[in-house]
């Protein structure tokens, strides 16, 4: 038990350091590539912070543990909005870019509904996984092209975000980014390993382990990255990271996992957990529309919802 607690502590330290390095590198690359920081958050940072979910889900599917694979994705998506966004805006209320409401949130909803429809027959098949992944590639291409067209408009659209000059070379920015991803990977791995061992010792079911302990563990990169981004007032990285991570979790993590091996879905997941995930995603829209800023009250509500959901599971 003591060894597992030590693994969790080391994992958390690595995640916080990795989050700081990842944000620094991502913002620098955004400036050099003349892409908006929102797009960097939606792509590079989101993929980096979603890599633990991908690795856990692939391993779970390979070992014949579909409950952990599905629970990991659903639990992470719920945690990203209700826990991570909630905690982040309590630190620093976040202004919301127009393109987040126009493109990113709708894509998250499309991905969520697609997940529900594909899971309706209680199995996500290979062709459905392929369709998910192709949809993700198309969306990434779309937002990069859109960013190139509207970069100047977007920078004017976010007056609260201070644009800082970036004098660091592209090689150093890539180094910070890679260093951050490595920290997030090993930090997540050790945190999950320690948390899973403790949960097993306590006799918790695979579904609950997947949707709580492992989902929380794989969401800690988003929590660390978003909190650091909010503290540094790089808030479009924070918003883009969370929405992008949810899109990646469904279209990339579930998509690729189901391509490797079709994933079975339990009926209670369809009638309970997935509905919570979709409901929380819907709730995010009015919070973003009010003064185009997610404030501390919204953060408190989201955090209360997450606590309520976890309590209902037990």
Descriptive report:
This protein has 314 residues and is mostly helical. It has a single domain (36-149, 191-313), classed as NCX, central ion-binding region (A middle domain of Talin 1). The chain contains ten helices and four strands; from the N terminus they run H-H-H-E-H-E-H-H-H-H-E-H-E-H. It has helices at residues 2-33, 37-62, 66-91, 98-119, 126-157, 170-201, 206-231, 235-260, 267-289, 296-313; strands at 94-95, 123-124, 263-264, 293-294. One of its GO terms (cellular component) is plasma membrane. It holds the Pfam family Na_Ca_ex. It is a multi-pass membrane protein. Residues 5-144, 174-313 form the Sodium/calcium exchanger membrane region domain.
Short description:
Pfam families: Na_Ca_ex. The chain is an all-alpha fold.
- Largest beta sheet, briefly? 2 strands, antiparallel
CATH homology superfamily: NCX, central ion-binding region
Q: What string gives the helices and strands in order? A: HHHEHEHHHHEHEH
User: Quick check: average pLDDT?
Assistant: 83
User: If classified by CATH, what would the architecture be?
Assistant: Up-down Bundle
CATH class: Mainly Alpha
The share of residues in helices is over 70%
Low-pLDDT residue intervals, each spanning 5 or more residues: 153-164
| Quaternary form | single chain
How much of the polypeptide forms β-strand, as a percent range?
under 5%
Radius of gyration using CA atoms only:
18 Å
**Count of discrete alpha- or pi-helical segments spanning 4 or more residues:** 10
Strand segment tally: 4
**SS-derived structural category:** mainly alpha
CATH topology: A middle domain of Talin 1
Instruction: Give the strand line-up of the largest sheet.
Output: 1-4
Distance between the termini: 22 Å
Transmembrane segments: 68-91, 103-120, 126-145, 174-192, 204-231, 243-264, 270-290, 297-313
Organism: Brumimicrobium aurantiacum
Protein name: Sodium:calcium antiporter
GO molecular function, one term: calcium, potassium:sodium antiporter activity
């Amino acid at each position: 038990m003591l060894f597992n607690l030590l693994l969790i502590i080391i994992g958390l330290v690595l995640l916080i350091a990795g989050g700081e390095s990842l944000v620094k590198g991502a913002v620098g690359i955004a400036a050099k590539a003349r892409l908006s920081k929102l797009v960097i958050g939606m792509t590079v940072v989101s993929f980096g912070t979603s890599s633990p979910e991908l690795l856990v889900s692939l391993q779970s599917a390979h070992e014949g543990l579909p409950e952990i694979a599905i629970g990991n994705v659903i639990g992470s998506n719920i945690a990203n909005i209700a826990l991570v966004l909630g905690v982040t805006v309590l630190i620093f209320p976040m202004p919301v870019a127009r393109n987040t409401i126009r493109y990113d949130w709708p894509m998250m909803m499309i991905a969520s509904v697609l997940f529900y429809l594909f899971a309706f027959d209680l199995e996500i098949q290979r062709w459905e996984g392929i369709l998910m992944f192709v949809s993700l590639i198309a969306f990434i291409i779309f937002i990069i092209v859109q960013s190139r067209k509207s970069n100047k408009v977007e920078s004017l659209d976010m007056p609260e975000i201070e644009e800082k000059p970036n004098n660091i070379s592209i090689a150093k920015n890539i180094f910070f980014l890679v260093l951050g991803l490595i920290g997030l990977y090993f930090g997540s791995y050790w945190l999950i390993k320690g948390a899973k061992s403790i949960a097993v010792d306590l006799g918790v079911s695979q579904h609950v382990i997947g949707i709580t302990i492992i989902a929380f563990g794989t969401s800690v990169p988003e929590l660390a990255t978003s909190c650091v981004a909010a503290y540094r007032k790089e808030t479009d990285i924070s918003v883009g990271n969370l929405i992008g991570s949810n899109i990646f979790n469904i279209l990339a993590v579930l998509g690729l996992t189901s391509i490797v091996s079709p994933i079975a879905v339990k009926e209670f997941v369809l009638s309970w957990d997935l509905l919570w995930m979709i409901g929380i995603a819907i709730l995010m829209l009015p919070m973003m529309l009010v003064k185009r800023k997610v404030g501390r009250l919204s953060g408190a509500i989201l955090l209360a919802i997450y606590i309520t959901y976890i309590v209902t599971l037990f």
